[in-house]
Structure formats: structure tokens, C-alpha cells
Task: structure prediction
Amino acid sequence: MSLATKYSPESVEAKWYAYWMENRFFSSKVDHSKEPYTIVIPPPNVTGVLHMGHMLNNTIQDVLIRKARMEGKNACWVPGTDHASIATEAKVVAMLKERGIDKKSLTREEFLKYAWEWKEKYGGIILEQLKKLGASCDWDRTKFTMDADLSDAVISVFIDLYHKGKIYRGIRMVNWDPQGKTALSDDEVVTKEISSKLYYIQYKIEGTENDHLTIATTRPETIMADVAICINPNDPRFNHLKGKQAIIPLINRAIPIIEDEYVDMEFGTGCLKVTPAHDVNDYELGVKHKLEVIDILNDDGTLNEKAKILIGEDRFIARKKISKLLDEAGQLEKIEDYKSNVGHSERTDAVVEPKLSLQWFLKMEDITMPALSSVMDDIIQLHPPKFKNMYRSWMENVRDWCISRQLWWGHQIPAYYLPNGEFVVAKTNKEAVQIANKKFNTSYKLEDLKQDDDVLDTWFSSWLWPISVFDTEVFSSGNKNEELKYYYPTNDLVTAPEILFFWVARMIISGYEYMDDKPFRNVYLTGIVRDKLGRKMSKSLGNSPDPLELIKNFGADGVRTGMLFSSPAGNDLPYDEKLVEQGRNFANKIWNAFRLVKGWEIDDKLSGESNKASIEWFDNRFNEALTEIEDHFNKFRISDALMATYKLVWDDFCSWYLEMIKPAYQQPIDAETYNKTIIFFEEILKILHPFMPFLTEELWHQIKDRNTHEALIVAEWPKANVFNKIQIEEANQVFELVSQIRNIRASKGISPKEAFSLTIKTNQPMLYQRFEAVLKKLSNLTEVSFGDALENAVSFIVKSDECFIPMEGQVNVEEEIENIRKDLEYTKGFLNSVLKKLSNERFVAGAPAAVVENEKKKLVDAEAKINALEEALSKLK
Result:
């Protein structure tokens, strides 16, 4: 069969994905004869479409799952989507607006009908896009966080935790998103440094003509909510004001001047306006001093009637207007430019308002303890481990989790309010009526009860994900089904560091609460994909390429490898299109290598003796590389595993091995060498498959016709054999010699077609004799001899061996001396760097023994080369 001269991804990707799906290679069922290997996908939002972060994250997951499948494990990758309360409701509201429908005009049931319509139309887009990437998820297991059974599990957990006393309802200061009109947990607030203004406002002192206090604030629009001015009791500047009252500008309300050492005398003007309804710290101060709370903001961030002025104005417009009014009243002393850290909603990017609100909370102090110790004790390992300190800091300082959201899309809180002012928590309204009547000795009917309007935080469903995707009954019955017993705990989780606390920590908490076990063994934390300027890729910045366009232009395999070339765990990926170009070029290199091999004619009568050394070398090199690759995988260095594979294929197999055994033009190859080369190629395709599934499956079947059970996706992963390190090093010495000869040809302008002889002064002639055929072929040599230095020859050093190429009167002695001196200078510098490393006690004590031994070998080689170069130099002088 003739192969196309260039690899065409579009012609093979759809074919092989359909083949894998049709033959159910992604499917997983409980099988106790196999070791399970399980990954649950971080469920993307139903509002989402594939972006670069998804590409990186899901490529890594697919690499891990495909390798496990080839290792004979029962690989199960569970896909699904998250209902994403805030983001999805915003999308639905926008859709309704386009249709001329206001959400306020709808009942909850009517709105939810539209929301489900939107979900059915758009909710599965991202999962379909993942298939283009090659994601080998068990699609039959696809879950949605608002599936009926998963929703039932969430409600069961709420009821259970409420009855355990871990969930409570209370008025607390929360983060409020005026755009989403909902409370947020601390983790959903992103702090950004922004340029703002610092306003210095004069507050007159009641009963005086000219006396006043100056307060510095970034939020003049909140002065109408002030309830006190606070000074430090130890500050002599304000002794005369103790016990007096200040007058709020513009509204002329008197407020007390109170004392508290909380106020920093050195900061700002040394006095503080206290606004308990609109500042977390002020709220704590207000509780301590039993101050009034005046909330002047509506849920949408506009001023309400309690503000007295500018009612209905947006908070930021009010800020500008109040600044002008204060100036006109002569009470604005000055305005300064100021940098301040301001919280923004993670979902809508609106500036968050601290707001006193009646919400539902989960007590976090005790429930987090097992989750903290499991990570600190490496029962669950974070990769890279640098995130452990961040994790510990968050878990040790965690605040109660605000789990209620003022939305309609989501899991409605199962609390039912009664006419007597009480409430009961129950799974259904019928059950609530029964509980209420029994508890309060009443005779309420269904219509007497009103269910809580709020829904639960989205993360309150996804924190159950590693459990609920396998079993939803366990939360109510406590009995585990066979799937949960088999697949839980899962093996590896691949996710982004920014949701370490949103999601990862909470899954660990729920895992110990409901399974008394970890939800996964390893957490691989990817970096953020950034552009060349270091900015996070986003649609709003217009700096993110369309992943599907990349796949169309460069092929899925090219994009997958391109994303992984420079993305070590936990470190950001500086994306450059050259990376995916490199991935595409790699695919073409492999394709062309196969075309070369398949194009050779085989002669059964030929002997393969001349290629024996080449075959032995590559066999050793393959096993050395495979050992290194396995070590990288075991340590979750996925990028390094790819690079080791890349070097093995591009450098060792394509650039050296195939050139070493390639027959002369239009000449046949012996059967033994050809067959061994095909075996090597098959082994290479196996270790390439997790990274480049489409290309490798195509070539696997091009090699020969195979049955379904012989598909590459389920082929046996290679096992590394013992390798001969000395033979590998000897071959590297020969390669260095070949490279030196090629450099001499290039520098002297000698054609590669012009043959010449080589003389080597060495005490290890057997090494070169074993590779003599290779040396002659790759360097175009007429002969290789061994002896002393030659006159009138170009010389160079390989390790400690001196090599001579006769130039018949063409040698420029001065030029040769200069070249040797440069080489000598470089080698001495290299020797110094090795000596410096070996004299570092921390390096010698901390580095692996093999690394230290390798440095010692570099030392010996460098010293030998310096001696040889100095000897060669002395002969030329």
C-alpha cells in the first residue's frame, strides 16, 4: 500500500475515533480480575466551550488513562458537566432578554423550563469538542450535576449535615455579587489591585463652630451608612473629642465618636469611619460596640431609601456625585491617587460588596481535619508538592462555607418555612408537612409551607463528584454499591491550582465524611496557559486561539504534544503557536520515517551482520529511554516523559538508527534487520500512543492488518529490560566522532560525497571496530585505521582519543592551533563547572547517586580530553 507523502490528520482522526467508540474501547465495567484505574473529569460548566486550559488538562488526563489501559488496567474515565448556577443563570437571563422576556415576569417553574431548554441545546457542546481532541472517556457514564439521582444525593447530604448540626442558618457578613445578585463564598472572590482614589472627608464635631475630623476613605458613597467614628484611646490628638459626636456630611446625622485600639494611629488620618453594613472589619467592630447596622445598598448595588440621597443611583455613579457634593459643601479636603485591593466576583467579575445577609452555612472547623492531615501526611499527594503549604494555610484558616445562593438554577434548599415562623428540613414537601405537624403538634397542609427560594452553591454538588458518579444512594442509605466499592478511591485527579480550594479540598472533605477514605491518591495541578506577554488566555483579551481551529490546522496529535512540550506540573505554560507547529512536525517526522522503512525492498539472502551493532545499540537505548519515561510518569512529570519520548524517536531512532541501517540507494535490506526495525517501530508507537493516539493507531494498522483485539489502544505497554549502559556510551562516542567529521566537512567546504580515510589514536580500537560499518557509512570514509599522529592532517579529540583526517597539504597549522585552543578553553570551563558542582556538599548529599556518578564521569572525560588536546597542541607548535 502506498502512503501519502504527508500525514493528513483530518483523514484519520474521525475514522479512528469512530473505530474506538464502535468497539467500546473506552467502556469500563466492574471486573475484579483487573486492577481499576479511575479518573473523574473536572466537570466543565454547561455554559462552556473548549478553551486552552481544557485542552491542556484533558490531554494530560487522556495520556494517563491511555497508558493505564495499555498496562492492562481497567481504565475508567468518567466525563460530565457542572450546572454552574451563577454562570448558567446569567446565560439564560441574557437569552430571555434577547427574546424580550424579563426574568422578573416569570415564575420559578417558567424560568427553569427555559433554563433546561438552554441546557439541552448548549450543555453538551464541550464534551463533543473533547472528542475532537481524542479524549477516551467512557461516554456511557456521562453525568450532569443536576441529573435526578445526583440532585437527590445533594439534598440527602444537606439533610444529613443539617441533622448532624454542621449546617446552620444565620445572619452573617457575606460577599455579595450585585450583578449575579447572590452571595458568594470567600473562594469565589478574586482580589485584584486596581487604581482608585482616596477621598479625605471632613466630619464636623457636633456643638462646635469649626472643629472637625478628617476621614480618608476609598468609598465616599457609603458615608450615609456610617454609625460611628473610631479613634485610638491612646492617641493624644483626639483626647478633646472623646465622648462627643460627629456629623455625617450631606445628611447631617450625628454619630458617636468611640474608642478602640483596633485603630492604627499611624495609618491614614488616625481615625476611622465605622460602616458595619458595608465592611467586614467594621462589622466586627460594630458587634463589639453594639452599634446600629444601616444597609444603604440594594441587591443590585444601587442606593436604597436608607441612604437619604441619590436613591436608585448605581454605587459607582453615586461615588462621583457624592464627591462633587462634598466638594461643593466644602467638606472634601483633597483626593489622592491610590492603589487598593478590591474583591471581584469569580463568575461575573463584578466588584463584590460585603453585605449582612441571612444565609445557610456549613461549619468547617471540625469537618476539615481529616482532609488536612491526609494531604500533610502524603496520603493524598499533590504534584508538585509546593502547593502543600498553600493548602495547609487555607485549611487551617478556613471560615464557615456560605452554601446558599440567591438563584433559581440549581439545587433548591430543602428547608420549608411554616406559618408559625419556624422551619423544617426535609426531602419533600409532603415529608416536611409530616415532620412539622409531629414536631409542633399542628395540622398544616402542603399549601401552608413555603420552600426556601435559594439554591445551593454549585460546589456543594461537585464536592460529591468522585462518589456520586458511581453511587448516589450511599448518601442516604450508607450502603455502597459494587461500582463504588470497585472504583473508589479514584487514582489521579488532574485540575487547575485555582480550584484547589473551591473543589479539590472540598472533595477530600466529603470523601472522608461519607466514605471515611480519600477520594483520589494523586492530584496533578496544571499550570495556567498564558500568552507571550504572560497574560492568562481569555476571550475578553482576544489572546486565545480557537482550540478547534488549532486541531483543524495542526492535527489533534500535533496540538496535544504542542500543549505538553513545555507544561511541567504547577508551572504556567507560555503558549506559542510554534509549539503546536513542532507537534505537527513531529507527527510528520514519524510518518516519513514509516514511509522510509515501508519503502525498503527485502532480500532474504542478505546477511544482517553489518547492522548487528546498530540493532544492539538501539535495543539498549530504547530500554534506557523507557526506564526514564516510566520514572517521569511515576513522578507525574508528564512533559518530561513526552520530551524523553520525543528525543528517543526524533534523535535516536530517526536521525541515527535509521541512517545507520538504511540500505544504499535502490538497494535492498536484509530480512533480519528489517524485521527487527519493524519491531522497534511497533514499540515506539506504543509509547507514543498516549501522547499521539490518532497517528499511532493509523500506523499500527499500516504495518499489518490486525484484528480488533489487536488495536494499538489496547496493545500491551512495553516493559523496560536491563540495558547495557557501556554500549550506549560507546555508541554516543561514535556519534560524536561522526558529528565532528561532518562539522569539519562543513567548515572546510568538503562535499559529503568526497570520501577520505580516518586514523584514530586510541587504546580502545575494539569500540570503533564494532561500529566500523556505521562510521564508514555515516561519515563516507574509505577506511578506519589505528595508529599514531599523522602529519599534515586535521586533528580533533573525541573523549580522550585523537583523530586524524589527512588533508594532503591543505592543513593550515595556525588555524588548527586556534581551533584546538578554543576547544581546550571550552573544555577547561566545562571541567570547572563540574568541579564546582561536585564540591557542593548539598548537591553531593542530596542528588540521586546516579546523577552524582554521572558528574564524576564527566570529570574523568573532561580531564582526559584536556590531556589529549594539550598533547595535540604541543605537537603543532
